[in-house]
Structures are given as C-alpha cells and as structure tokens.
C-alpha cells in the first residue's frame, strides 16, 4: 500500500540570499539537471512538447558570464509541500504517488520528470495548456529561515478539476496527505472530492495546513479554509506559528489551548517545534520528543521531510497511533528527517535516505 499526496503548490523555486545587510548565507547550490522527459505520454492530458523545444537547466541558472558560483548564487529547484512529502517517502524506501496540476510548459514537464526520477508515481499529474506552472522566490536569512514570494495569477496548481482526478489511484492509497489546496476553486472542490474518495476507500487522512498567508484573500478566510477540512482529518501536523494563528494569539505552550484544536475523530495531532522537536497528542496520551541538533542552512522542506518520515512509518504500521512507545520512536525518526533536510540548500535535493536518518539517530553529533 502507498501514501498518496495531493498537490497544493508544486512549483519551481528560486532560492536566493537575502540582502547583504541581513548577513544571509545559503549553502553552496546543488546542481539540478533535467533532460528528455521519461514519463509515459499516457500520464498527460496532451503530448509533451517536441524534443527540439526542450532545454537543460542547472541549479546556478542566474549567474552568467563565467561568474563563479558562490553561497549567494541563486538555486533553481523543484518544490511544494505535497511533492516534497511524496519524494521524501520514496527516498525513505516507501511507496508514494502524487496528484495535482502543472502548466503544459517546460517547467511542468521537468517537474513530472523529477517525480519520476525520484520513484514517485506521477500518473495523477495533469497538465493545463492555459495556465503556467507556479513560481516561488524564497529568500533565506542567515539563520536558514525563509520568506516567500509567489507568482500564481492563477497558476495551474490552482485549476485542478474534480473530473481530472485519478480515482482509481486515490482508492489504492493507505494514507492520503494534503496541504494548502483549499484556497481557491476549482482546486478546493477537487481536494475535497479526492479526500472523500480516499476516506471512503479506507485511507487515513493526513493534513498539514502549511500556512502561507499571502496566498489567502484574508486572515479570516485562511482560518475558515484550514478549519473546513480539520474535522475530516485523522492526522494533523501543525507548527507553533499556526497554532498562534488559529487560536488568535493564545498560549502555544498550553496543552489546554492545543487540545482545543483536537476533535473527536482526530487520531493524532502533532505540533512541530523546529530544532526543539515536536509534541504529540492523541485521545489516550500526549508528550514531547526532543529534536536533533544541527547547523541550519535552509529550513525549506523541513516540515515536509518530518511528515514524510512519520507517514513512511505509519504506512508500515498503523498501530503506532495507539502505542505510545512506537509513536515516540517514529517521531524520533521524523525529527531526524527534518533535521537532516535543513543542513542542505533546497527541499527535494536535501531530503534524506533511510540510511542517512538511521546513521544520524545513532551518531552523537551531526
């Protein structure tokens, strides 16, 4: 059985250093090279463009004229929460699939290639001839934290239609994970239909709000949209910042406040605390698992890597939802996944293998 993830935003991301005055210093760029697509044509809503129209793209796309690559050189990379989770699961040895929509353009076909090359089933991808693949510019601060600037007006990921869903693929999922695709129609309705199909087929529903306020019309609409799917989810992963947002500034460290977000059908609520680890809440027990200390270079994708680590463990053994000892071990694994991801620049290039995670867990210092 596999984990299936539903696209919120799947895009090309340009990761750049902040202004010199902020003393930001991303790590050296990992090279990304793309060639002829190796994805079956039957996966697409229309044939790929002719080979002569294709080109190669490297991680240092912006420096030119022989300028040497530096820590401040922009890095062009694929990203997007659900896609990061899908690749993360596959890289850990699990089985994953992706559904969503990209533009029928060069970037869209490259993104399909990246999923295929990372052993993610991309049969659920759709290509829109009338909309572009989304672009996101990520600015890194010196501590590895980020600021996002989105180019979606609208982009193809926002335009997935309910009748474009691969329901056969969805019904095969053991776990259905989704994130931030509740903002606009028609993607919102497609998301809800996909989640219902998965739930009706017996899948566990996982949800990560992945709050990006600039994508929402208003803060109130963001709260309403996030909570609209909340009570259908079996597992919710949320950050401390998102707790503060949803509770309008209440104490994020007060278990009673966090419990307000717990609903009768929820099996597991996870609160991520960055480098400090995570807290967990179920109907039977709650607690905290400390994080793995590393030197952060780029925090992009850390939460998605955490989710991938947790879902990969859950897909193997759903009983850990009711066994605190097993759950804690799985969360240690997930914490290590997130920690390793922040030690490199870019999300997908930095997602760890299972071997790397196990080595980190048994090493005293990373």
Automatic annotation (TrEMBL):
Enzyme kind, highest EC tier: transferase
Any one of the GO BP annotations: fructose metabolic process
Superkingdom per UniProt: Eukaryota
Task of the protein: May play an important role in maintaining the flux of carbon towards starch formation.
Presence of the UniProt keyword Nucleotide-binding in the record: yes
Protein name according to UniProt: fructokinase
Keyword Transferase in annotation: yes
Native organism: Crotalaria pallida
Biological or metabolic pathway of the protein: Glycan biosynthesis; starch biosynthesis
